[in-house]
Amino acid sequence: MTLTRRRLLNLVGKAGGAAAAYRTMAAMGLLPVPAAYAGPPNLPPGSGHGVSVVIVGAGIAGMVAALELGKAGYRCRVLEARARPGGRNWTLRSGDTVEEVDGSQAVAWEAGPHMYFNPGPARIPYHHQGILSYCRALGVPLEPLVNDNRGAYFHDDKVLGGKTVLLRQGITDARGFVAELAAKTLDREALDAGVSLADKERIAAFLKDFGALGKDLKYHGSSRAGFAIEPGGGTEAGRRNEPLDVRQLISSEFWWRLNFAESAGMAATMLQPVGGMGRIGEAFGKALGDVVTYEAEVTQLRRTDHGARILWRDRKSGAEHEETADYVVCAAPLTVVKRLDADFTPEVVKAMAAVDYVAAGKVAFEAGRRFWELDDHIYGGISWTSRDITQIWYPSAGFHERNGIIVGAYIWSDDIGEAFAKKPPSQRLADAIADAEVLHPGYAKEVKNGVAVSWAKIPFSGGAWAEWDEGARDAAYPVLLQPDGPFYFAGEHMSYVTGWQEGAVRSAQYTIGQIAERVAARKI
Amino acid sequence: MTLTRRRLLNLVGKAGGAAAAYRTMAAMGLLPVPAAYAGPPNLPPGSGHGVSVVIVGAGIAGMVAALELGKAGYRCRVLEARARPGGRNWTLRSGDTVEEVDGSQAVAWEAGPHMYFNPGPARIPYHHQGILSYCRALGVPLEPLVNDNRGAYFHDDKVLGGKTVLLRQGITDARGFVAELAAKTLDREALDAGVSLADKERIAAFLKDFGALGKDLKYHGSSRAGFAIEPGGGTEAGRRNEPLDVRQLISSEFWWRLNFAESAGMAATMLQPVGGMGRIGEAFGKALGDVVTYEAEVTQLRRTDHGARILWRDRKSGAEHEETADYVVCAAPLTVVKRLDADFTPEVVKAMAAVDYVAAGKVAFEAGRRFWELDDHIYGGISWTSRDITQIWYPSAGFHERNGIIVGAYIWSDDIGEAFAKKPPSQRLADAIADAEVLHPGYAKEVKNGVAVSWAKIPFSGGAWAEWDEGARDAAYPVLLQPDGPFYFAGEHMSYVTGWQEGAVRSAQYTIGQIAERVAARKI
User: Fold this and answer.
1) What's the pLDDT band for B196 if we cut at 50, 70, 90?
2) Which fold has domain A95-151+268-276+359-457?
């Protein structure tokens, strides 16, 4: 059977090439076909001639829309309130400024290719083929992002007396606990009827391997949890870490974060652009050239007989401008769009009010010494604490450089995020330093030149990302998926991948497909 | 309590700086002190003046020994049979040649910074601080190595009708199975006495999160297993992969490989030098300069009244040379050392015979198209198959480049490795291509210019790495840890980290410590 199948595939391969063999194999159910990413809608060249589109916002969604519509001959203009492309795709480097609604912070750290901070998106999962395809097309070099570093730390004030442990200790000991519990069923009728003795033995053997159990099917610790003394040369056989009190660990919901790297968007391989996530926005901006008008703040959206009239203000000169277009793609966050003086229907206004935006925030510091590598042997990844900073991120690039940028907080839960927004940046930084001491004693002396970004307070963002609750997804989301006359809505919020750049890409592609269909129908 | 502790640490930090706070925290048991790596023995400067050491082999162990002894004033000479430093630390690039005992292969692929192949070691775990410290000291840039890519494939001819699945499917579904099994104990007395209802509820909640179980504490599939259709923009809510038949999976021992990335040496963060593992050997070679004599094949080791006499042959000219030294560090593999014409004691000869070397081998191909990224969305990591090739490795660098090098086989089990060694390289390559078709249909048309390295057939290696069985570790290993007159033994085989460069580093450091003690004793 195996030979026959292989022979068949070889024959198909010889006759039709690799792609044919691939499709045959997929059709035979022998290959997990990667999740379908069809690419952008294949708009016929020239199909957009004579059609004008104004796009509000040069974030990822707006720029994807402009790029793809432009290829098909649409006349596009992107109006971007900021002086740079990318929107929440943003990398801070030496000399940059962070503007919040009530103040600004200068980025004062040393310059260097590895001296950057992504206040917004900072990781791309391998299966986000929409954004990855644009990285390929636009020549944005990628490198691995270490998301799950088992050598980083875990800390919960309420558990183990506030002791900090290695992630690999928590993960390994929890696996051992679960496997040991599972093995207990094997001796009993608890297991489904019809399971043979041989089956039970095989399951027991698997559980032993899964959980690093002993011959007695109990967990007694494992080298998977790391070493108190590393095995070495000569007589140094090493000593592994002692098991933790797992029942205590798992009593804390915070500890369940141990499972985070299993989730759909967090599992390896995770990627990042070399030099900062902002490289993507910058590459889109470069590709679009003067299709984007910067520092152009849209103030009004009006319906006209044949489309829309857009009023915008040049933030440099203060001059007001008017623009007409057949269609408008509102590719800014709803926090911004809903505040425009616009001719939206009451249904759309109501729908826009139904979505919540997360008041996420991040803090970054310059470190003159990569203490996390030198003292803690942490190369990339994330440490977790139950304190407000929630996470510390270590850079996945620039290993063994003299200095570096450490992400000193990544906050996304509503209550902590809202409190964070209310504090002045100096207080956010002071609090972040105090929190981090549980993970890195002496931290206060290691870090300087902190920057604290609260997305709720960033003009033209007004939040980090959209979250639809079930009711809003059912009722409001479909309303915004339909054009409101000439007005379309695009962005991560108009997707099932909210909070990710992939959502912005896929939403923009959906929207241009809608526009192209409408244009095609009009022309026939 | 928490505040008091924090205050104490702040006080210590203020008084003694970060390092003092760190040590205090560690002493309080509040921090998982990273596994102790003391660094190389701190030999007093000048302590080796007038002492001569010949080192056999410019592999990692030999070069660490030469570097550290040299710092302390020892007169060192490294005799290396090959024309390059590094030993098994080796990167093949365009234009290189692979010499086996009975033939040679030219590396014919296109040149490029990402067009390389490491036939030997190819990954460094974050906690191997010995080798990492030398990377830091010698200025070898590092980057993450993707070891565990959940988007790579798993395939077993005997399971699921030979269907290939995503690693994340196997891993997620197995977790679900184990958690569901564990949850069954909660309803019964099976659980230890003394567990309260509240405890049971907490454990149940944890198991639900651990295994992605439903409210009924049963596993019904999860987005953690990946998507058949990715969630996207607009109306595309996506569809997750259906659960596999886990009982079938775990019936295969091969499937337990799913747990590999949990193990001590395989868990993230894994690292690699930018441009190939050989960068480390090259950096050591550069640092040592003419301390290393290349193409110098040691033929005899003799005892003398005051040390040793070493005979070696210049492989370029064929000339025989004689050298004397107080001590000799045999830093070549025992496969090589035991074949020397040497004045070893019978105990040492017997001990050397007790260690096994693994007949591991690898295959690499040039690909003109990075089909694993384009078709399969695989960025780095490893696919597994029950067929002989065992693994396919995808490069962790050069993402989205036009071309690349794919590791088409990594074999280390004795029977397959020995069969691999016996085949001519052309046959190894043909077989590797046939095997890979189950993972990548059409593979044969994608790859070219293969290179196949069988370590058993590489001169001056004669095997991939040492494996001590329990008896040999107890009886033979201690014999070789003691100097045999002027002769010392160093290398990965003389460590508890066999098969890793870390073992070579730590063994060399152990050995120079022994020599320094002896020298100090003589001088007093």
Assistant:
1) confident
2) Polyamine Oxidase; Chain A, domain 2 (3.90.660)
